[in-house]
Amino acid sequence: MTDSDSDLSDFTDDDLFSTGNIFARRELLRVGHVPERARIVGRDDEMQRVGKALGPATQGGPPRNLIIYGKTGTGKSLVSRHVSRRARDRAEENGVRFVSVYIDCSDADTETRVARRMALGVRDEVDPSLHIPTSGLGASEYYHYLWNLLEAVDVFVVILDEIDKLRDDEVLMQLSRAEESGKTDCYVGVISISNKIEYRERLNERVNSSLQDSEFVFHPYDAAQLKDILENRRDAFQADVLEDSVIPKTAALAAREHGDARKAIEIIYEAGALAEGQGDARVTESHLEDAQREAEVNRFQELVAGSTPHVKYLLRSLAILTQSRPTKDMFSTHDIYQRYKQQAEAEGSEPITQDRVYRLLKEQTFLGVTESHHTGGGRGQGSYLEHRLMRDPEIVLDALDG
Ligand SMILES: Nc1ncnc2c1ncn2[C@@H]1O[C@H](COP(=O)(O)OP(=O)(O)O)[C@@H](O)[C@H]1O
Ligand SMILES: [Mg+2]
C-alpha cells in the first residue's frame, strides 16, 4: 500500500464534502436570495404600494407602471420580486394568466439583451419547449417572439432593475407603446428601479410619461431594522455559533454606513467565512471587525482602481501625514504637496504642479474621501485651505498597497 492510499483511507466522504461547523443554510445570505414573507422586515408600506400597482393585474386588468428609487441595500429588488411573485400566485388563483420577468439591467444593458431576456422569460413560463436562439438575433426578432408568446398571456409585468444602467431607451418606448400600437392585447406593466435618485430627471426625459403612473422612494434602514433583518436569518448559521454581540454590532456598523441591508448581510457572512476558514467554533466580534475592515479596504480599492498614479501618490501622502501626526489631521495644500512630491519622486515619476494637485484634492472632496476648510486667518493674514482625510489612514494605505 502506498502512502497516498493510506492518506485516502483516512478520508471519509463526510470529510471530503464537509460543509464546516459554522453555516447551516448559507443560501440565506446570498445576494440574489428572495426570502419568504416572514423574513422581510419593516417594508409593509412599500410592499403595499407595489401591491397596489399590481392589484388590478391579479384580476386580469391593467397594472400600473411604477418607478422605485432608493439607495442600495434598501430592499427595492427584494420587495419588487417578492410582491410580483405573490401577484402571480394570486392571479393564478383568479384564473388570470400573469407572467412577470425580472431583468437586471446591469447585466442586460442593451435593447437586444433586454428584449432577449423578456422573450426567454415569457417562453419559460408559457411554452418551455419553444426554441428561441440565444445568439444571432436582433431586438426586433426577440420582440417578435415576445408579442407572439404574449398572445397566451393576460398580463405581463417586467421589472427593470438598475434601469440607470440601460444604455438605450428604445426598449422603454416599445413597452410603453406595446398596447396602443396593437403589438399585443396583453396588458403590459413596467416596474423600473434605480439606485440613483439623481437619475429621476434623466428618466423623466427618457421615457414616455405612461411608464410613470407613480413613483416612490425606499429609505435606508436604521440599526433596529437591520438587527431584525439579520435576526430573521440567524438560521443561516448553525445553532449557538454566533456570539451574542455579533448581530447587534453588525447592525450598528451597517446603520452607520448608510443603512444598507446588503452590506450588513455581506459582512456577517464574511465574518462567518473567516471563522470557518480559521477553524474557529464560533463567530466573534473580532471576526466581525476583521470582515468589516476587509470590506472597507476592498471598497476603497474599488474607489481608487481607475485613478491615475498621481491620485494614488496624493492619497498615500495624505494618509502618511495623518498617521505621522497623532494630534493633527488637517494639512495645508502646501504641506500635502511637499509630501506628494517626495512620493512621486520616490516612485520615479515626474511630479505634477501644486495647482493640479490642488484640483485632485478638490475631486477627492467631491468623492467624500477628503474634506477641506479655510483656516481662520483674519483680514490680511490670508486664510488658506486645509484638507483632512475622511478615511482611516491605515485602510487607505492597505488599499493602495493591495
Ligand atoms: N426588509 C428586508 N427584510 C429582509 N431582508 C432584506 C430587507 N431589505 C433588504 N433585505 C436583504 O438585503 C439585501 C439587499 O436588498 P435589495 O433588495 O437587493 O436592495 P436594493 O435592491 O435596494 O439594493 C438582500 O439580500 C435582501 O434580501
Ligand atoms: Mg437592487
UniProtKB/TrEMBL annotation:
Domain called Cdc6 C-terminal: residue spans: 315-400
SMART domains named among the record's database cross-references: AAA (SM00382), Cdc6_C (SM01074)
Family annotation (Gene3D superfamilies): 1.10.8.60, P-loop containing nucleotide triphosphate hydrolases, Winged helix-like DNA-binding domain superfamily/Winged helix DNA-binding domain
InterPro entries named among the record's database cross-references: AAA+_ATPase, AAA_16, Cdc6_C, Cdc6_lid, ORC1/CDC6, Orc1/Cdc6_arc, P-loop_NTPase, WH-like_DNA-bd_sf
Entry annotated with the keyword Ribosomal protein: no
Segments forming domain AAA+ ATPase: 62-401
Pfam families cross-referenced by the UniProt entry: AAA_16, Cdc6_lid, WHD_Cdc6
Keyword Cell wall biogenesis/degradation: no
Gene Ontology molecular functions: ATP binding
Binding site for ATP: T74, G75, K76, S77, L78, Y221, R233
Record GO biological process: DNA replication
UniProt keyword list: ATP-binding, DNA replication, Nucleotide-binding
Family label: Belongs to the CDC6/cdc18 family.
Function: Involved in regulation of DNA replication.
Protein name as catalogued: ORC1-type DNA replication protein
UniProt source species: Halobium salinum
